Structure formats: structure tokens, C-alpha cells
TrEMBL record:
Gene3D superfamilies: 3.40.50.880. This is GAL3A protein. It comes from Pedionomus torquatus. Coiled coil: none annotated. It comes from the Eukaryota.
Amino acid sequence: VKIFAPNIEQRDVVNHLKGSPTEEKRNVLVESARLARGNIQDLAELKAGEFDAVIFPGGFGVAKNLCSWAVDGKNCTVNEHVNATLQAFHSAKKPIGLCCISPVLAAKVFPGCEVTVGQDKNIDGRFPDAETASAIAELGCKHVCKNVNESHVDKTNKIVTTCAFMCKAPLHEIFDGIGTMVQEVLKLA
């Protein structure tokens, strides 16, 4: 397992204690290195031929830095290195795992693919971003409704997705869903 991140400036830095942006500037690779304890490489250096699969985490980092979904929605652009990585694994018929908001990357890059970001309706207030499913459909992809502890496998494209924090759920349910995504990616590898 190796960890990669793009060597780009973050769109913005958020003070998560206050929930508001700061004036501070940070680099995505440097911040990712902090989380990975330094064991990380620039995404531009990733060679799909050296790996069996790729998994993208989710979160606002994806929606703001790996693409512009947070600002532009379905009209977003995808970072060139993220796009190239997804295309390389897809062309090599290697599995791609995506969780939380990152399934929108596949929806943008692979028209016609199948993904999940949970539900297409805000059931019991648990899916506050349910409109993301409609945007995915508008991109020409199929959104498949799944519970937080499940994942969806698009066998044709070898794309495995789960909603993770797109659902307001207990952490153990989110953990279970991410676990099923990883298991399905490994089965396809």
C-alpha cells in the first residue's frame, strides 16, 4: 500500500473548531503527509502498472481540491493528476474504490458508470446531500441507492463505491460500509 496526493495548494483552509475558513495557505501533499506520517508521494508519480487497485477517500478535500465539486457541482473540473490516475486504472481494467463524495469523480470522468453516494432522498435527515444523486444522474451515470453500511459494485467498470460520511450515521456503520468497499475492491483485484 502506498499513499499519494496531488502537489497543489488547497482551495482553502478551514478551522474545523469554528467551522470557518482561515487566511492560512496549505499544500495538499504537505497536509496529506502529516496524516500519512510522511510516507507519501506526489500523485503525479503514481504508475498504475505498479498497483492492483486504487482507492480514493472522500471528504471536502476531494470536493474542493481533487475536483471543484464543492463550488461547481456537476459542472466541476477534475484535477489533471486525479483524472489521469482514474483513466490509467480504468484502462488497465483495475478496480477503483471511491467513498463519501469521491464517487462524483467517477461520475465526471466515466459517463455511464454506476455509483452510490447513499440515497437520493434525505431519509429521516440522514442524507442531507441527497441531491448529489440527481447531479450524478444528470452527468449520465446511474446512481444506486445504498445504505451507509453497504457498497455498490459497477462490475463493468470495476468501480466500487460507498457513501461513508454522506450519511449522518454512527461511525461503526460508516466503518462497515468502507470495509465492504475495500473488500469488494480486493475481490476485483
